[in-house]
Amino acid sequence: MPRWGMVIDLTRCVGCYACTMACKVENGTPPGIWYAPVYEKELGHYPTVKRLFIPALCNHCHDAPCVKACPSGALRKREDGIVVVDQDRCCGSRACMAACPYGALHFYAKEEGEYGPERTAFEQAFYKPYKVGTVQKCTFCAHRIDRGVLTPACVETCPTGCRVFGDLSDPDSEVSHLIRRRNGVQARPEAGTCPSVFYLR
Amino acid sequence: METGNSFTKRFVMERKPQTIWRAPHALWFFAMGVGGALYLNRALLGIEMGRLWGLSLADLLSLALISVGGLILISDLGQPLRFWRALANPRYSWISVGAICDFVFLFLDVLVILPDLEIGGGRPLAGLPWAGGAFLGTAMEVVAGVAALIVIVYPGLVLSYSPSIPFWNTALIPLQFLAYAFASALGLALIYGATGLAPPASSQTWLLLLGGILALCLLLFVAHLLGAAYTRATARESARLLVSGHLAAPFLGGGLVLGLAVPLLAVLFARPWAGGPPDTVLVLLAGALTLPGNLLSKYGVIRAGIYPPFL
Ligand code: SF4
Ligand code: SF4
């Protein structure tokens, strides 16, 4: 059984937000929900300042605090390491959101379109039937993986090849090579969550 | 409740305030804590606070407060009609454990007090099999007591088990919740005592006990703030917000000074160890201030939760 993971090369990201948008289109998420944000960070001091773009998503943590915090057992880890939420079980306590160190869970509070309560024709066609009052999250595009398409939408769209997806349990996979060769780091390792997403600097 | 989360409000890698737990949660934590402590004070120390229809007022208040806490918890859910699902993960989730204990406590305490119910001068339920010191009744009281203890501390455990927020990630929080809950429950007993319905000797003992708990509680908060100030930058920022930032008024002013320091001074001036009935105004002051102080301290601790930038 693979353990899916992602490597994100921070030296390549140009902050085009193509991944952010590809994810929204692929998953049909409502306004205000961003599974794949790209955060900006300023490094250095004037006049030698540099802007870093940090693409993010759910880390599909090995020891996922969201799964433990969820009182209704709606969050679970699949055998391939992907953390998914069952919106039919979610009671909307949002305890998982408080527990996640990476802001990867999103509450869906109200059904509305980008331009008000009425949805546009595009929104009617593309929004997925998310349940109001539940928590939603990135699934590494599990619906594609289950169909045999082993590239999440953000990875497929990225024009710079900054995001690489693969099997962390396979020492010969590209992600494993990159992590070893370029000393991939995990976000907030001190939180003890053991993320499946690694960053290269 | 808004769609999204506080991280993606701005796509900037910076500290993010937690916005999940808010004022209603402080009220929920407060009600659960005081309710549980009232029951334990009655069961362990015999603090009944009078009787209504033959039932201990402490038990009735305890049931009411824990019910209110449970209702706040349910009303805050995104899917309130699915509240029963919150009982499904007691192996890992403290909310689940707490919710189960809420129900166990409510169920058992109602059964435990039923035999005492007086209607028309008689006690029609006095013949129930667990009445009159029966082993079953004692066992039910013990289980209800354990459930009450968990009800007091589980909100604190929910916070302290959060690896996401450094300021919360400490065992001091459940201890604070425990100490402040008993202080407030004793505060209610003292208010009752000040009305002249309890013997003065009881008020003296309760006041002494309250003094000790207030001092302990104050120490726990100081230790938490000092610990945060000397550890990670984000925890330091949380402590700063509580001591000199926008949360200083509710937390420092309300939770620590008004709720702990002033009542402690009132206890010291009342000199309960000296014998003789303590001054009623001081007793009332010490008892009453622990209640808003408890609530405000919880509000402060909750709102001071900050996520550090994760990269
Ligand atoms: S990143 Fe957050 S939501 Fe994703 S598995 Fe880890 S704790 Fe859960
Ligand atoms: S698509 Fe690629 S380059 Fe563009 S923001 Fe996303 S990760 Fe960065």
Task: Give an overview of the whole structure.
The complex is a heterodimer of chains A (201) and B (311). With 201 residues, chain A is an alpha+beta fold. Chain A has a single domain, classed as Alpha-Beta Plaits (2-Layer Sandwich). Chain A has helices at 18-27, 65-69, 95-99, 121-126, 142-145, 153-157, 174-181, and strands at residues 4-9, 38-45, 48-55, 75-77, 83-85, 105-108, 134-137, 163-167, 197-200. In chain A, β2 (38-45) and β3 (48-55) form a beta hairpin. Chain A is globular and about 45 Å long. Chain B is mainly alpha-helical and 311 residues long. Chain B folds into 2 domains: 18-161; 165-305. Helix content of chain B is 65%, strand content 3%. Chain B has helices at residues 23-45, 57-75, 94-113, 135-160, 172-197, 200-229, 233-243, 248-270, 280-303; strands at 16-17, 51-52, 55-56, 306-307. Chain B has a two-stranded antiparallel ribbon with strand order 1-4. In chain B, 52% of the residues are buried. The chains are: A alpha+beta (201), B mainly alpha (311). The structure holds iron/sulfur cluster (2 copies). One iron/sulfur cluster (SF4) is lined by residues 13-19, 38, 53, 55, 157-158, 160, 162-163 of chain A.
Short description:
The complex is a heterodimer of chains A (201) and B (311). Helix content of chain A is 21%, strand content 22%.
Strand order in the sheet with the most strands of chain A: 8-1-9
**How would you state the average pLDDT of chain A, rounded?**
96
Please give the radius of gyration of chain A in angstroms: 17 Å
Number of DSSP E strands of chain A:
9
Q: Enumerate how many helices of chain B there are, as a single number.
A: 9
Described by the principal axes of the CA atoms, the overall outline of chain B is: globular
Q: Helices and strands of chain B, in N-to-C order?
A: EHEEHHHHHHHHE
> What proportion of the residues of chain A is helical, as a percent range?
10-25%
Overall 3D form of chain A = globular
SS class of chain A:
alpha+beta
Distance separating the two termini of chain A: 29 Å
Question: What is the total number of structural domains of chain B?
Answer: 2
Which percent band covers the strand fraction of chain B?
Answer: under 5%
Give the number of DSSP strands of chain B. Answer: 4
Largest sheet of chain B: 2 strands, antiparallel
Strand order of the largest sheet of chain B: 1-4
Query: Which molecules are bound in this entry?
Result: iron/sulfur cluster
